[in-house]
Amino acid sequence: MSFPGKYLLLPLALLLFCSAPSRAQFRAEAFSQSYNDDKASPKDTSDRLFSFKEYFGALGHKNTTRVGTLFAGSLVFLGSYQIYNKHYWKLPIVYGTTLGALGAGTYYHLTGRQDISKWCWVGAGVAYWATLLDGVISYKPNDFPQPGKATLYSILCPGAGQIYNKEYWKVPIYLGGMAAAGHFWAQNEVQYQRYRRIYKEATDTEVPYTGPIPASTALYYRDVFRRYRDYSVLAFFAVYLLQVIDANVFAYMHDFEVNDDLSLQVTPAVVGGDMSYAFAPQQSPALGLRMGLRF
Questions:
Q1: Domain limits of the chain?
Q2: pLDDT at 183
Q3: Residues 108, 120 contacting (CB under 8 angstroms)
Q4: Helix (H, G, I), strand (E, B) or coil at 206
Q5: Are 98 and 131 in contact (CB under 8 A)?
Q6: Is the peptide bond before 141 cis (omega within 30 degrees of 0)?
Q7: Is the pTM of this model over 0.70?
Q8: Residue 288 forms beta bridges with which residues?
Q9: N or C: which end of the chain has fewer CB atoms below 10 A?
Q10: Which long-range CB contacts under 8 A does 126-130 form with residues at least 24 apart?
């Protein structure tokens, strides 16, 4: 391109920008246009996340419902999943194990047998958890993938959502992270209790303290290990929450097409001296580069 031609490009660009077709893109009307004529559905609002009409209609087999709606209802109305799935034979097992263990724990607690009542309550919690997990597994229809099922699997059993999504390689990562957090919690709890005991002994005015660790040092390490213990708890729940989010997101993206054919090609090119350029009709051919991105 000749020397004067280079400086003609800027006025030309400004002229095109200020022309009527270009200015129309930046008028106020352009920002107020509606490009979606779909009317908002009441089901899209947050108040439809749980519907009692939908929930009880599903229990009466008048309609189908989402797995999340059944899960929310089953947290209060035990056995809802089994009724919806028409597994009525499971109801005596559900109520017998859960309510039976809960009643036994209450009885032993009132009679002063705290050791037995504790394990009865643990058994009631396990039976309650197993009832919810059974309902999610048996939920119909069983079309794959269902983000709701993947999410509930991960909530009830860490790593199960990844197994449901057939991403088995992720299970050791999340379970290993949670196990590591639990290990560090146990180690820090032991050290915290140790320095807490030493600090109490060092500051006890009634019993002389002859230990090698002074009270100030014991106080410092007590606070340090308590802080590390709390960090371990946060790390555990962070990994737990991450695997729930992972199961939900990758269940949604299961059918997302990902093409590995991503390439950038740079090849030499010859720019011909024809009438393609209005301001340089006599331009001679020139060498250049052609760049193409394929995705």
A1: 48-142, 170-258, 262-295
A2: 96
A3: yes
A4: coil
A5: yes
A6: yes
A7: no
A8: 269
A9: C
A10: 127/94, 127/97, 127/98, 127/101, 128/78, 128/98, 129/156
Examine the pLDDT at 212 and tell me if it is beyond 90.
no
> What pLDDT is recorded for position 70?
87
Between CA 185 and CA 180 the distance in angstroms is 8
pLDDT in tens, 86-145: 899 999 999 999 999 999 999 999 998 988 999 999 999 999 999 999 999 888 776 777
Q: Round to whole Å and give the CA distance between 67 and 152.
A: 9
Task: Report d(CA 215, CA 274) in Å as an integer.
Answer: 91
As a whole number of angstroms, the distance between CA 243 and CA 240 comes to 5
Mean pLDDT of the chain: 79
Residue 88 vs residues 23, 47, 82, 105, 250: alpha-carbon distances, Å: 69, 31, 6, 26, 33
Angle between helices 147-156 and 67-74 (to 10 degrees): 30
Alpha-carbon distance of 82 to 135, in angstroms, equals 6
What are the residues facing 286 on neighbouring strands?
271
C-alpha dihedral, 272 to 275 to 280 to 282, nearest 10°? 70
C-alpha triplet 49, 52, 54: angle, nearest 5°: 80
Vertex 191, ends 190 and 197: CA angle to 5°? 95
Which residues are CB-neighbours of 8 under 8 A, at least 6 positions away?
279
Alpha carbon 36 to its chain's center: 29
Give the model confidence (pLDDT) of 147-187 as tens digits: 889 999 999 999 999 999 999 999 999 999 999 999 999 99
